[in-house]
Amino acid sequence: MNKTHSYLLLALLTLVGLYLTSLYNYLLFHNIAELFSIVIASGIFMIAWNSRQFIRNNYLLFIGVAYLFVGGLDLVHTLAYKGMAIFKGYETNLATQLWVAARSVESLSLLIAPLLLRRRLRMRLILFGYSAVFALLLLSIFYWDIFPVCFVEGAGLTPFKKISEYAISLILFASVALLYKNREEFEPTVLRWVIWSVVLTIVSELCFTFYIDAYGLSNLIGHYFKILSFYFIYKAVIETGLAKPYDLLFRDIKRSEERYHSLFTHMINGFAHHKLLCDENGKPVDYVFLEVNDAFEKIIGLKREQLIGKKVTEVFPGIENDSANWIGTYGEVAMSGKAIHLHTSSEALRRWYSIFAYSSEKNCFETVFEDVTERKQAEQALRKAHDELEKRVRERTSELSAAVQRLQAEIVQRKRLEDTLRESEHKVRFFASQCLTAQETERKRIAGELHDSIAASLAAIRLRIERIAEEMTQGIRGSESLEDIASTVAEINTDVRRIMADLRPSILDDLGILAALNWFCREYQKAYSHISVAKQIGIEEQEVPDSLKTPIFRISQEAMNNISGHSHATLIKLSIQKEDGRILLSIQDNGQGFDPETVRRGLGLSSIRERAELSGGTCSIESVIGEGTAVRCLWPI
User: Is this prediction's pTM over 0.85?
Assistant: First the structure.
């Protein structure tokens, strides 16, 4: 006879024994059945409460607390049962009222529990809440006498009792549906036990809608099903709380590892893990590729099979003579544990790179690569264009100076030309200065964000992983989990995507200006939740010329960023309309406002005006202290 058959035989003998007990003395049978459920309910609470630091499943923790009070109501129900003669002056109705109260608390708890799976539980608050409900139910039955009548002697169950049992059954059905919907949160065996327990509770409730005598057959069958339902919920909690307390934890770790691997594989920046090779004197002479991601393959131009296990001098002959001194720089990182962030070029690879390097273990290091060759080329092109612009300005200045000398006799004309020349020089130099300032500001911002968020977060991840690894080596349960690290990695991914979106949102090119504005307003709302954004779009996408889409987006972005940084506003109204063959962009806020005379030369306001004017439009900025600011830009179509 196998183990399953043994359990079935034991269960059958137990049920037969209970039946024989009911024939001898039904009150004794009832006490045994109820005490079984009371002990199980108390045991479920103790197991859930004392293993709460291991169990990540809020469902089991919540019902563990709930069943303590369900068992308490069942205990009072047992003492109040007909024939116990403990509560004088009461008949069958008292026990029936307590039964309905206990089952109502049980069914509602089973319905609420799945809704708390992904929420943070405040266990002391839950205990207080259940204690209050427990006390109110007992007061409504014993003291205030306001609980509806459930049983009339000689007539049987009242309509309220029957309707209550059907309502409880419907609630339990709904709890099963929610359980199945969230089945991925449970270990399969635990889920089966819980569902069987709820189903048997439903059958038990339906049995209790028929009896007209507290010692009747339907009452007996109902208690049988109740015993089985409590046995199954007992199995569910024991499986999770004692026998397999780490199953769900390892399940979470596996999910974290899968998310980390997905991030590693699909991250935009190249990532590589290396081992340093040193000579007999401890001097770095080479390093080996241990792991790379897809982005690294794309940046380097080689497949993973061509890199893993190979020395860098084998993969890139002559790189040891590269002025970037890769081997020496990385050797210092691996041996000192100090992280570095640098921009450098490689003659061997003929590319420019932005690199973050750090060491995760002795003589090993990781590198995060970004190919910035195109950015460097763009900077060089910009510098060349700037030099050409300065050359043309000098040429123009020379021409104007010669013209002034030729027109010395004409004093009035000469003054006009001199004034024009000074104004032209001022505008050109001011614009060039603005370009350089904006460029350096953007570089500084991007570098700061990479350093403060990405670099700092990666360094923190390394330290936390080292700590976890050390604790696991020493056999100590760590205070942190990889789920926390995965959350930090997710934040890094969000930061990277946000930096990319700040540089150039792809949605502007893919879907157009209206979609880009909607996207920006959503992201802005997330970043500044205290500021409400109201949009009014009165124009179609095809009515906006392509040449105006970027200026409209950048002006909106600059204006709203200025509001979040300076205005203390709680409401922004963004409107883009078509009026009389013209496009009108309006950004208004209800902030503190400012004196236009004192901030007229601010970089943000100047940038907005220049973007509007350079794109063929006009811009007006109106502000009153205490009443907010309005930016209006107008373009003829």
Answer: no
